[in-house]
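Appendix B. One record, verbatim.
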Amino acid sequence: MLKVECSDVFYGKNHVLYNVDLQLDYGIYGLIGENGAGKTTFIGLITGLLKPKKGRVLWNDVEIGKLGRKYYDNVGYLPQFPALYGEFYPIEFLYYMAELKGMKKKEYKDRADKLLDFVGLGHERKKRICQFSGGMRQRLGIAQALLNNPKLLILDEPTAGLDPRERIRFKNIITELSKDKIVILATHIISDIENIANEIIFLSQGRIISKLTADEMLAELEGKVYTAKIDEYTYETIDRSLISRVINCNDSYMVRGFIKGIQGAVETKPTLEDVFLYKMLEINEGCHDKI
């Protein structure tokens, strides 16, 4: 179990996180928010790279600073831009990372082989990493994060640059892993967490705005999201801040968003992208009352 109880976190002289109070158990947690919301700082906090000015981070009710190496034995981390050393073969890279993690050879040799198979790279053992596609690199990154069989797995923008097929494969891997782990998935791609996250942590301007299941978030928007096919003149009159999606249909537009008052608008099922826009409207004073 991971607990974060911090009232003030600074990055240099900048106050970047405020009043974070979270408790996470096994499962997948989507961490979403706009650029600059504090997602990277939050990851720095739970990995011990940043220290709170006020507060503490606990692993099984013990401060992570007191646990030291014992805490990091439970942590796996895939950064947004992992250094994978292109001239290595994948198994060489995993062995190298296992040594850096302080693992014994008898521990990691068999596990590294199994992890390559688990992430679908078993048949790519004879390729150098520089020959890997973006999706293959991400899967190798996940394998290195799993070497020490962590109970806390932190993934920072793990699907950036992946094609749709790789995204599906990635989500399947993460779902399988979450049975006995806390998985924190920080992303800008809302659809990546819509069907796999047990709960979604919405972070904005350094504050936790909500921590709810996807169904709970979507329920808040029932009766608020509409679609309409409109002409160019009508489109020009709509407040763009209320639109979550627009498709150009030659001489007309198919518009989705908080547009209940538009003639011909039809109520539609909300998505997490709609939730994200709605939360931004709530946060930006003067916008929410337009809905």
